[in-house]
Specification:
The protein is of the alpha/beta class. It has ten helices and ten strands. It folds into two domains: 18-78, no CATH class; 89-279, Rossmann fold (3-Layer(aba) Sandwich). It has helices spanning 18-29, 38-51, 57-66, 68-78, 89-103, 120-131, 147-155, 160-172, 194-197, 230-243; strands at residues 109-114, 138-144, 157-159, 183-186, 189-192, 200-204, 216-221, 244-252, 267-271, 276-279. The structure holds S-adenosylmethionine.
Length: 281
């Protein structure tokens, strides 16, 4: 039922209890945000409450429990899906220089994009592997717990404006061909070529509650753990450590680091600035 309680915007929900709201989401729907960074969660919850005109924690809990569509929207809001193709182009230059030679030594290659959002990172990898002659022997597992983002990713359709931005990133990343070789233009959007999607397996996977992927050569989990607290970062790092083969490579986002995690000693740094690590043992 609609809640028409007026919201006092001069007192924007200063006394909300994020922990109680997160418990409600977890116990009713199984999405576990209890170890996401407090500042991030509070900001997103406050935004939602103002937008939906929900005055306090009790009304918020009630709405979550009784309105599944609202809860789905809220879960979506709590997961930030901002992404780009060839995001941080220098990272891709480093991948090409330092990681591709390692991948070339394997007869087949398993790559896991954890938190792939709307697919741009996985398509970037598919392009890089194609240009390096490695795509045919690669399998890319692209996972996220946001089904809406995954559905979008599978389609591989992006606006012309985004394609223009991605073209610049592609060039800055030092790629070899022309970005337009990888899509077909239609009206105001572009569609990524089927050949890039051939070896990408999209799957719903929750890093907090689901299990490992076996024998992976390369994991990218970029701009995901920035929203996790230390406890959750360590838990997910354990998952990655157990998923990687010895000598496997782990890539994090520019504001993330293995330092201060429990597995730091078990990796060597391939490129400190670009957050690329190699599993030692
Ligand atoms: C900011 S995007 C990063 C996308 C891409 N990796 C990049 O760097 O451009 C963060 C993604 O992590 C996903 N995510 C957050 N928590 C997750 C979890 N517990 N399990 C799986 N994916 C999660 C979100 O749904 C979102 O799509």
């Amino acid at each position: 039922m609609e809640d028409h309680t007026p919201v006092d915007h001069s007192q924007p929900h200063r006394n909300i209890n994020p922990a109680a709201i997160l418990e409600t989401i977890f116990s009713r729907y199984g999405y576990d945000f209890r170890h996401y960074s407090e500042a991030h969660i509070k900001r997103r919850l406050l935004n939602s409450m103002v937008r939906w005109r929900i005055p306090d924690t009790e009304h918020m809990k009630e709405r979550i429990l009784t309105d599944e569509a609202f809860a789905a929207t809220l879960v979506n809001d709590l997961s930030i899906t901002v992404t780009e193709m060839f995001r941080d182009p220098d990272f891709y230059r480093s991948l090409r220089t330092h990681v591709i030679p390692i991948l070339k030594t394997y007869p087949f290659i398993k790559i896991w994009h954890a938190g792939c959002s709307t697919g741009e990172e996985a398509y970037s990898m598919a392009i890089l592997l194609t240009e390096e002659g490695l795509y045919d022997r690669s399998t890319i597992y692209a996972t996220d717990f946001n089904q809406q983002a995954l559905n979008f990713a599978k389609e591989g359709i992006y606006s012309n404006d985004l394609a223009r931005e991605y073209t610049i990133n592609y060039q800055l990343a030092g790629c070899k061909s022309s970005f337009s070789d990888y899509y077909t233009s239609q009206y105001d959007h572009v569609i990524m070529h089927k050949s890039l999607r051939r070896n990408i397996l999209w799957a719903n996977h929750n890093l907090v509650t689901d299990s490992v992927f076996a024998e992976v050569h390369l994991i990218l989990c970029r701009n995901v753990m920035i929203y996790f607290d230390k406890v959750l970062q360590n838990q997910v790092q354990k998952l990655f450590y157990e998923s990687l083969i010895k000598g496997g490579v782990l890539c994090l986002g520019s504001k993330e680091s293995l330092k201060f995690t429990n597995v730091y000693d078990r990796y060597s740094e391939i490129d400190k600035a670009q957050r690329i690590y190699k599993k030692k043992y």
